[in-house]
Design brief:
The protein is α+β, with helices and mostly antiparallel strands. The protein has two domains: 102 residues, HIT-like (HIT family, subunit A, 2-Layer Sandwich); 33 residues, no CATH class. Helix content is 32%, strand content 17%. The structure holds adenosine monophosphate and zinc ion. Zinc ion (ZN) binds next to helix 1. The site of adenosine monophosphate (AMP) has 12 residues, from loops.
Length: 139
Amino acid sequence: MTDCIFCKIIEGKLPAKKIYEDDQAVAFWDANPASPIHILIVPRVHIPTLNDIPDGDTLLCHMGEVAKRIAQDLGVAESGYRFFINVNKGGGQVVFHLHAHLISGNDLGTFFIKVAIIGATLWRKLLSILGADGTRRKN
Ligand code: AMP
Ligand code: ZN
């Protein structure tokens, strides 16, 4: 596939921070990481989506084994990580060359969102106790 970014990375025509490769798959760091550890595991063969893998194909198994190995090497196998595949536009897939994400580490984005929600809830509670939001009425 001439227009495929991941094919170009696999062929060495585009740069990527590779962390692992074998005869079936290549793994490299995501260019826009969602977490401190964000690796993409990409089969060498151009398969657009998970839907295009024939039944009985062992490729997915291999991708899982690669993820396991990388997680071990990066020291997150025990602490934990996420391993997932986005499928088609509705599933969040942007690059149409099959790939799995391996994500781990502090998710600061989620952390700050949670802090903001808790903060807003406490603030509203405080306003309600003080009667500043008009919800506290005298009997
Ligand atoms: P998906 O949404 O599952 O298709 O994921 C595509 C991923 O590829 C995104 O997380 C992008 O940040 C990542 N990506 C796109 N272009 C590159 C690139 N040239 N090198 C590394 N990662 C990339
Ligand atoms: Zn491709």
